[in-house]
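User: I'll paste a sequence; please echo it back and then give the predicted structure.

Assistant: Echoing your sequence first, then the prediction.
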Amino acid sequence: MTGYLQTLSETLHAYGVDQPIMVVDLDRLDANCVLAENVSDAGLDRRLVAKSLPCLPLLDHIRGKIQTSGLMTFSEPMLLALLKLETKTDHLIGKPLPVSSAARVLSECPDAAVRVQWLIDSPERLKAYLALATDRQLALRLSLEVDIGLHRGGFQPEQVAGIAQEIDVNPNARLSGVMGYEAHLAKLPGFLRKRAVRASADAFDQAVSSLPKTAKGLCLNTGGSLTFQSYRAEEKASEIAFGSVLAKPTDFDHPTTREFFPAAFIATPILKTMPGNSLPGLDFLSRRKTDLAIFGGYFRAQPVFPKGFGYSSVFGRSTSQEVWTGPPAASVKPGKIALLRPTQSEAVLNQFGTMLAVRGDQVVDEWECLPN
């Protein structure tokens, strides 16, 4: 990958990058979209995770390649921005929001009542949302978070029937579906994974089977970027969710994503190069190393270019001008562009406010990002 990174660095230098910025490679992104289409069951709807792809032009580009049922959205600011920018997108909230947050969203965007599936994880939150619906005289769409093995909250499958009935009889609410997240499955060791996969599927099946038989067109959501390929339409789920895999930060380097390309990078100028740099306080000792200082630092990312450089154990981490250490014969110059792979995409791809879109050896667009 060194030749690719060298070309990318030169492209960004020629474009005039002079401060840290996020970069997305459209050729790699397109290849990842094709692969995601090919490895997922065509009978399942696909929902993009907005927090993992927090840029509307980026989402639009992907939606031009992958047909989607809507977005999974996780925060009030991003939800409000997307509701105002788009008029028809369906939003499944990916984590339970405080009812006060939902109230503000409904005040600014009353049509959120029909465009948003609010996630309910407990009887207490259900009570709060039903009170809000009664107060506003709106029929809120409520989706149930079900614990299918991750144990990060949500209803137990045996609770679903009673909660669904409570929603069903309330004139100011309607059941929109269930969501079961299972991020633990891909990360368990092999001897635990097979049993956990079966237990997770059984829990999801039990929850779905508990829903009212009269309910039609429900959103039965599961999966994630490391597991979405494993679901089939003949099973209980109606849709799968993914996002990060299309950018493939380092946290998503996994056997299930081996064929996907890293498509997002942090680019930042090299401020200084210091061959044979002495140790602080030990000026009489020279080192057979080259140090360089980048613009900014403490990014949630791993250095990948120039080749052979990594975080300095001598200078430590810094948000201002972080020092990397590499080989003594490294040919690096101030002003050239260093590259890092993000460890995650959420709260990282949009951290600089702007994203550069690259195709081939050209920067083809600058995209404004969404708020977290």
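The chain is about 30% helix and 25% strand. The longest strand covers residues 264-275.
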